[in-house]
Design goal:
Two copies of one chain form a homodimer. With 96 residues, chain A is mainly α. Helices cover 77% and strands 0% of the residues of chain A. The two termini of chain A are 26 Å apart. Chain A binds a DNA duplex (30 and 30 nucleotides) through α3.
DNA sequence: CTATCTTTGCCAAATAATGTCAAGACAAAA
DNA sequence: TTTTGTCTTGACATTATTTGGCAAAGATAG
């Protein structure tokens, strides 16, 4: 599940219009619309606010959010993408 | 092995001063120095030039380069980092 | 049709990335 | 010790990318 799909799902479940979410994030409705469609990336603080609004664990949303960012980054380089991900995981183990 | 380590190793093996590499990349020596120390990220075109200079496969360097970028991105979020990497790998399989 | 919600395109503001310059650190050679 | 060449660092400039607002246009329900 993608971050963008998840926040839309949560918003619908809670029966909230984009306008309400946008207000909480202190941004324009149009901007939030773009976040939900993946045309803009949310900031970390915005993810925090979203997890509060929807009563879900911050780490859950944060994981999806980060995964989306990484996917976006590597999908420009499909040839080496998956190997690079493996290496990055390895790097994490070594460094922290 | 990190990208930064690799290009330094290759440069030393070929007995080239940073000045020579910087000239080929059309940047200041100081900038190349930072790239080698990881304080600046190389652009993709620069990676291409480096692989030519050192006579190594472009994809080899590109993989290291991308892995470094990903590592850098996720290491800010160590709590969710490795799970996000798994998800990103999964996303790649699904999307492409 | 009207009202509300959502989406899109274009431009402005803010932020981050990239590069330069000048000066300093360091080592080897003269 | 002075010189020479290489590498490194920090402050600043430039450029590129990201983020946001505004206005107008779809879409959908009442």
């Amino acid at each position: 599940m993608l971050f963008t799909e998840k926040i839309k799902e949560l918003r619908i479940q809670n029966q909230m219009p984009q306008r309400q979410i946008a207000a909480a994030l202190d941004i324009d409705t149009a901007t939030y619309c773009k976040i939900e469609k993946g045309e803009r990336k949310a900031k970390k603080e915005q993810v925090a606010i979203l997890s509060e609004m929807f009563h879900v664990e911050m780490t859950d949303l944060l994981t999806l959010w980060l995964a989306d960012k990484v996917t976006d980054m590597v999908s420009d380089e499909h040839v080496v993408a998956s190997e690079a991900l493996s290496m990055a995981a390895e790097n994490l183990r070594r460094i922290g």
